Amino acid sequence: MSVENKKKARIMGLVLVLFSVPALWGEDSRTIPIDVHIIVDSSSAMENKKTEAAAWLCDTVVDVILIDGDRVSLWTAGTKPELIYSGMVSGGEKDEIKTRIRGIEFGGDSADYRGALNQARSQSQPGRISYALLVSGSTAKDPPSREAESAGLLLYSRVDNYSGWRVLTVGLNIANQVRESAAAYMKSR
Asked: Residue 130: inside a domain, yes or no?
């Protein structure tokens, strides 16, 4: 396959995946459960914005995006990543998730983003769509996007900036879906 055809296949595959994967932002009418790994920077960089970030996570992610059957893990990214909640969304679980988010304690000088992202990725189940939401302080060290170990992990990601903090959304198992969609598209031509 020529370089030009490979580029076209990659672009078409990405387009197919973007249209086949339910949108995380906006009105959620999906019925297929997903895995959501919420990683919160628990370093002092988030201390002044913790209330705003927690409100966004609770109001936008937990209340609007999550549906029954979704699997959620909540991590803090401090000096070492720590799993503080893991469970399946059903009934009153949303209240428990919001309580855990609001109860995160902040302090320390660093945040191990890569360790938290790698642990979240290791929990992703084959055949399920998995996303990681990394909530970080804008003064904190950026996630390691240039390091070879993390470059592939961050290939399917986007950053939303807020005043003093940001959210990095990572599609954890999107690469295989892009390859499969591109291959299916190329076979159909």
From this structure: yes
